[in-house]
Amino acid sequence: MINGHVDAGKLVKIMLSWVGTPFGAFVFGFVLYIILSYPFRLIKNVKTQDLTIKVATWIFGAYASYSLGANNVANVTGALVGRLLNIQLLALIGGLSIAFGILTFSRRVMLTVGKSIVELDYFSSLVVVLGSALTVWIYALIGVPVSSSQAIVGAVIGAGFARGTRIGNTKMVMRVVYGWVGTPIISGLMCVTMLGIISVFL
User: Fold this and answer.
1) Counting CB atoms within 10 angstroms of each CB, which of 4, 34, 74, 179 has the fewest?
2) How many domains does the chain have?
């Protein structure tokens, strides 16, 4: 918002990104699986394959964490910038809060992504992490906050399609879609409701 008015250009940009995130991640997951699976299959030694996966896990995991920090902390704390705290402190609070959320309530979401949509093997999982990280990072470069959850789901489905694996749980995918559509709507309604209640007492 600028001087109490909505910046229509930025709003449209965010809405397009909201739609494009899972589809972009789907493309990355699909294409990366095809590209990376070829050199990986050339590795015939099982121990070398295991070592490759372990090293790639560290590298891709670190990159995914970097992308998450570059983009998703803004989702948590961006609205407070310049109002209550400075950017550095807000980034620290947001990062610590995300870490705390990972340690407490991430298990069910991880199981949904890793098993309930498409059954992934180790290689597919690496492709998914890289594909979703690239998607989130690209949006971070252009300064648009996006959902890493939607990116990871899109990448999971994309890698699954490239692998020839059918979606294992269509109902779960529909629940994810409902969440994708419903989250901004419900959040908006909650904000309007809370502001209405607060305005009564102020």
Assistant:
1) 4
2) 1
- Residues of the chain with pLDDT > 70, as a percent, come to 80
CB 33 within 8 A of CB 162: yes
CB-based contact 25:158 (threshold 8 Å):
yes
With 0-12 CB in 10 A as exposed, 13-18 as middle and 19+ as buried, what is 82? Answer: exposed
Is pLDDT at 157 greater than 90 in this prediction? no
Q: What are phi and psi of 3, to 5 degrees?
A: 50, 45
Residue 138 lies in a domain: yes
Say if 155 falls within a structural domain: yes
Per-residue pLDDT band for 116 (boundaries 50, 70, 90) equals low
Say how many residues make up the chain: 202
Residue 137: name the closest of 113, 115, 117, 155 by CA.
155
161-190 residue pLDDT tens: 898 877 666 777 777 777 777 777 887 888
Question: What DSSP state is assigned to residue 94?
Answer: H
* Residue-range definition of the domain harbouring residue 147: 18-169
Mean pLDDT of all residues in 39-53: 90
Look-up of token digits 């970097």: 66
| pLDDT at residue number 107 | 66
pTM: 0.76
Residue 80 · residue 93 · CB < 8 Å: no
| Sequence-distant (≥ 6) Cβ neighbours of residue 69 within 8 angstroms | 95, 98
Does the residue 44 lie in any domain?
yes
